Amino acid sequence: MSGIIDGINSERFASLRDVFAKNFTDRGEMGASLCVSVNGETVADLWGGMADTDDPWTRDTVSTIFSCTKAATALCAHMLIERDLLNPAALVSEYWPEFAQNGKENTTVQMMLNHESGVPAFRDPIPAGGFNDWDYMIGRVEQEEAHWPVGTRNGYHMVSFGWTVGELVRRVSGKSLGEFFRDEIAAPLGIDYWIGLPDDAKPHIAPIIPHMPTPEDMITEFAQNLMTKPDSIQALSFMNTGGWSPNDPVAQKAQIGGAGGISNARGQVAIYKVLANGGSHNGVTLLSADYIDKMRRVSTATQIDATLLVPTRFASGFMKSMDNRAHKGGEHMTCIIGEGAFGHVGAGGSIGFADPDHGLAFSYTMNKMGPGLLMNDRGQSLINKTYEILGVHL
Fold it and tell me: What are the b/e assignments for 36-54, b being 16+ CB within 10 Å?
């Protein structure tokens, strides 16, 4: 086992290392990273397994973290909001006039952050490579007719969140989403985390291995619509991607703020460490403590998310704890974290979050995807053990 797992952990978190190792022996893990910080101190920084068939996962291995990227995109917007450059109550049209058409005229900035803007998917086919072309996708967002009267409900914007919120960041800051994130967050923190891989960056990227669906995976209403209703929001949001692949080098260079970020657990925890400790750490300030306290509150919740078809809870672009185990197939549409925590899950089971109530920053990333769109037993077991060590009952 010592040959599989590498890295450091405090004595107090030795049992967390054991759970991480068990993912490889008992739960089908291939390659993964895990990082945990408590009160600004790193208590676990672990990695292990294989990045590819003959290629070990090393300390600096990174991978596509899918929707974990949404938290980074939302954070960029919140930094502009606290600087009074972006008003959450304002109409999107004040910053982006072309968006205000086809039933989206009354969309506010807050609705964008809340997944309420009515553009969770695109009806007409996305051409090959379309997701990799920012200007093309912004035009598609502008032209798309709202899938519901804006502000009346929310539905998870699976990939489009990166363009709806990301274009606001670009319009207000004058920088592309990836540039703003690099200059204001990644570079000051000195982390390996990119929204759009630059030409001069040559990280060790573990290719993503898709989950192979089983009959058990098909029991959720989301999965049923995905397979049987090609015009549904579920099918359009998941399948109408122009063939986008996280392993495509062109896609890795594209600034896909809803699903295309590249990092590892250490990179994510560096951000959440700041957010879990009052907004400043080691000379880097992202937000004020007062703003974080407001930002992490639930801003929208629903019994039936228009996209995921289960109850969801969001805090202005960040996921909150969602326990859907009582629903059919809900164990794969669940993410259980502290009540005061906020962050984001990535498809296949990766996650990053901050819990200021306990000074906790947590992230887990991997290359072999698990079932469902939220957590699976690999990541959730690590979250559960972390809170158990902290003496917190989830």
Answer: bbbeeebbbbbbbbbbbee
Tokens coding 289: 């403590």
Q: What is the DSSP letter of 205?
A: B
DSSP string, 252-303: HHS--TTTB-EE-HHHHHHHHHHHHTTTEETTEE-S-HHHHHHHTS--EEES
Instruction: Look up the pTM and report it.
Output: 0.97
366: three-class secondary structure by DSSP: strand
Give the count of beta carbons closer than 10 Å to the beta carbon of residue 202.
Answer: 8
Amino acid, single-letter form, for residue 368: K
Q: 18: which residues sit within 8 A by CB, 6+ positions away? A: none
- Domains, in order of start, for the chain: 5-72+182-389 (3.40.710.10)
Determine the pLDDT at residue 2. 37
Q: Which residues contact 179 (CB under 8 A, 6 or more apart)?
A: none
pLDDT in tens, 163-214: 999 999 999 999 999 999 999 999 999 999 999 999 999 999 999 999 988 7
